[in-house]
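Continuing the series of single-chain predictions for the mutant panel. This is the parent chain; the variants come on the following pages.
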Amino acid sequence: METIGKTIKKAMERKSLPSPISPRSSLPEPEKFCPDCGSRIEFVFVGNPIFLKAMGKEPHWAELPCKVCEEKRRKREEEERRNKLRQERINTLLKNSMLKKRFVQKTFDSFIPYGKEKAKQSRVLSIVREFAANFRHHREAGTWLLFMGNVGTGKGHLSAAIINEIVKSGFSALYTKMPRLLREIKDTFNHNSEITQGEIICQIEKVDLLVIDEVGIQFGTDTERMIIYEILDSRYEDMMPTILTTNVKEIKTLEKLLGERIIDRFYEGESKILLFDWESYRRYQRGIKRTEEG
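Parent structure:
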């Protein structure tokens, strides 16, 4: 039996044909139930004599698609479309965040406390989890975080985990190292540069979360210090969340590099200074290996 959908489609293709559906029928309406969900199937009666004559058909009941199954299919396809668009958005945000291959898969779950300072690591992990989970609030509050501590203690891992988490909610982020940032800005001094210093700084100022790694590597000139100060000061005034990570272990040393006014902002509101003062994970793993070999 030809479905009503195909019948009507043929009628539309032959524009001279009238609607095939008739409101009356002397034939009893069939009773049928959907084999997939058990809902009652509806029918329409095809009885227009002009249409039937043109199509060479007899009056008949045409089966309509199951309303319940069609609604489920529509919702499923809509959900698939939204998920696809959402994933494309996330992929774009991750690409724009400039996270390198090593960091794009970093999560909070993959940060496993180790060694003698598990309690400290768990506390830091709890704080950064909260920051990411409630980023909408911290975005409005303009919360800043400073990660200070040894090389290989997870500062980059947790920074990447925060970015990977917040982009799922549609927020933008940028991860860059201080030397790279300064190099890219200085490259704009070239007359052949296709982008200006102001344009780079403007884009950096707009992202929802800015993460600058390797803060504390000695700046070469006062100009470089002023560039960094301009970026950080602008984000502070606009209440834009910022994370700085550094291997410098003393606040006073960092104050000399960035300025007391910048460091003072980590004591404001919900901003925090987090100490990563435990052994490097790589050295910890090496020590375990040596113990096992011994």
